[in-house]
């Protein structure tokens, strides 16, 4: 009985060893590789570059006061449409004490001179009536009186201007009245009533009371890398994608390329400007961020393949592998054309319906896998 049990254990041990060996042998055998294939397809190939920038008004003007003082009245608000010459604000002048003292002194002197001229005129009128002096001397006294009167009026106007920034005689053209220099839309009003403002001079830019722009004439301003600037020229079509309007595509025409580049983050960038076409019912606001696709070249309805199907020989010539039988491929050189980075035009070498081997290991099909659908343009 013990002998029979020993024989049985020996048979089981041998069977286990043989089974393990067979299993390991099968696992060590490499499965046959079945390559995925794809067909060439008709497509439109577009090669383009992208410029980043923003949509801004072509004309944007900062309205500044002609005199320093305090905002007494504000007549506009952001978003308001205004016409050229329309009143924007009124500035109340804070008089300079030195200028005020000088202006008051000028008025006093002019008053004294006028009183003296009046006395002299009266004296000569009496003498002329007595026949003591000729008419010419009387006329000279009248002219002197008129000049003194005019000097007093000018001195009083000057005093009013120093005190209030205006006078009664020039109220309509007063420098305290800030008016729009262009028609358009008020973009911003960075001051409030009661704020101090400074006129523009050689030492500062002055205080901006309002910014006005024509939103009916918008342009795209962006930057293009120096590696791409040589490929673009004025007149090229642009397609703008605006961040605030993700579903909209705006047409534009390139009209200016900067003659000088600027170094930014280690690269030379060239500024470009493009005129926007009529956006229709879309509302385009100033300073929308945007990306511009600049079409460098385009091929319509051409035979194309995914660039991943293309291979290169030691001589640098491109080729593809065409399936002649199930999982049997032959090398075939091709002539390529335009590429957009994902697909490439095939000028000659393959035809529609050819099955092309995909050499990418990540896309190799498993045993029994079918051909993936061809990518259509």
Properties at a glance:
377 residues; alpha+beta; conserved putative lor/sdh protein from methanococcus maripaludis s2 fold; Elongation Factor Tu (Ef-tu), domain 3; OB fold (Dihydrolipoamide Acetyltransferase, E2P); six-stranded antiparallel beta barrel; four-stranded antiparallel β-sheet; 37% strand; elongated; disordered C terminus
Strand-residue proportion: 35-45%
Q: Would you identify the regions where 5 or more consecutive residues have pLDDT less than 50? A: 365-377
Largest sheet: 6 strands, antiparallel, barrel
What's the N-to-C terminus distance? Answer: 79 Å
- How many helices? 4
What share of the residues lie within helices?
Answer: 10-25%
